[in-house]
Amino acid sequence: MAEPSQSLRPSVTVESPSAPPAKGVSRRALLGTAGATGLVLGAAGAGVGYAAAPAQATPLSSVGSGRAMFHGKHQPGITEGLQARGHLIAFDLAAGAGRKEAAALLRRWSTTAERLMAGEAMTQGDTDVARDAGPSSLTITIGFGNSFFARTGLEKQRPSALDPLPDFSSDHLDKSRSNGDLWVQIGADDALVAFHALRAVQKDAGSAAKVRWQMNGFNRTPGATAHPMTARNLMGQLDGTRNPKPADSDFDQRIFVPASGSNGPAWMANGSYAVVRRIRMLLDDWEKLSLAAQEDVIGRRKSNGAPLSGGTETTAMDLEKARADGEYVVPINAHARITRPDQNGGAAILRRPFSYHDGIDADGTPDAGLLFVCWQADPLRGFVPVQRKLDRGDALSQYIRHEASGLFAVPGGAADGEYVGQRLLEG
After folding, report:
1. Residues belonging to the active site
2. Which of 111, 239, 358, 364 could form a Cys-Cys staple with 233, CB 3.0–4.6 A?
3. Predicted model pTM
């Protein structure tokens, strides 16, 4: 759990319902079905917690017209606010497929992403699942796993930041649902638009790649609250109070690989590294705790997210404040204390997760939790040091379980006329 930011959707254009559709959107009437562009974030237990805060409310009829740009300095789906529906999918290249096949696949995916994000249909074989809907703030983000480079003969271009993550004590990882040659993140404010993109990406893979794993997630639906606010995770906690904000002077330094002066390969300029973790919440155990006990685990009030040391949600936490008995007001092992950057040598990450619920186990236990996605310029300086500290004494650790993991290099955005990863595959 952690803390929300005040970041908006910097690369999203929201059309007025009365304005004429933007060029390229004529295939679908831009009809919205839900309300404000509210955001949800929060990673229970895997990295310095901070997530985007809600964007400004917009009229109900405009949600479908929200549009993120495919071309740009950075890929979409990183700095935008959280979307109501998400899909994460990883692929392995097929036997015999190499650099040539990978380049052709990335061209197809880039063409599809550009069209769908503009609210248009696929060039061929469109399923019509998203007919009648606008772009709905759809984003499609593409990354490369460690194994991709050996498969394509590009080992010399593999960044050292893609070295495998260390083992952590909270790991109970299913390798079949971890890692992968290629990774795609899909998000939208409409479930059918997101599913349409998922099917398009899968169909585009054709014979070049096969699905390794796929996961589905959700966040609060835009307009579900009376006003924009930090959303709650499946533990009922306000989640995401201190995510780094694009307005911060060191935001780019923390989140994106610099265009120059980096030890990494040139093709990763303006890119970022995504750590993906499927974190199961042991909700039956969590819900047995009293309200006071839950608040001690997190270090914040469940009602409004304020630190136990007092104030409002955005009040700075007083880590030295003590009770009459001498104990800290914010317990020494509280999640919000441990995840603070000033408690981790300044390590910080941009968290942008989705909640998930995959049904009920045979014993009645819910398979639910968080599809944790965090972004940083270097995972060895972002996610890893914080997770190591969480491993050593986070009160939340006994109520969560990390069941899958992945690390992916996400190159910078494609320029006009380029496809994602072109500078790697044709450099």
Report:
1. 239
2. 239
3. 0.86
